[in-house]
Amino acid sequence: MRALFAIVIMSFVWFNAIPPAIAAGDTHLVPCQESTAFMENLQNAPKSYYFDQPYQAYSKNLLCGEDGLPHLQLRLDRAVDIAIPFVIFFYFAGFVGWSGRAYLINSKKASKPEEMEIFINVPLAIQSFIQGLLWPLAAFRELTAKELTAKDSELSVSPR
Q1: Which ranges does the record mark as transmembrane (predicted)?
Q2: The predicted structure's pLDDT at residue 23
C-alpha cells in the first residue's frame, strides 16, 4: 500500500509540479535581409570594411531573430561542422593522455622511476608518443582483455 501511495505521489509531482517549457510564440527566424531590426543595425553601423563585409554576408546567408541579430540553425546537414573538430580534439586529447600513461607505466620498470619523472628519458618518450598514435586501438585491445580497468578487489575503500 505504501509503495502504491509513493508511486501516485511521485507521478503527481512529476507530471504537475513543474510546468512544461513552452517556447515564446513568435520566435521564428527570417532571412536577415527581410528583418527590419537587422536593416536598422546595418544602417546604424559604422561604414568600414570590418562592418560592411560581415553585414553583407549575414544578410545573404544567415537567418535573423526578432532582435535583428544573426542566428545559426542547428540542422542535421551541418553536424559535420561540429563532428570533425570534436573528433580531432578527442583524438588529440587521447593521444596526449595515452602517451603520458605509457611513459609512466614504462618508467616504473626502471631502477629509479622517480628520476624518470623529473628527467625525461627521450627515447622512452618517443616510444610512448609512437604508442599514443594508435591509442584508440590500444585502448580497445586493453578494454577487451580487461587490462584497462581495475578489479573491485584492487580498489581501496576508506573505512567509514
Answers
A1: 82-106, 118-138
A2: 44
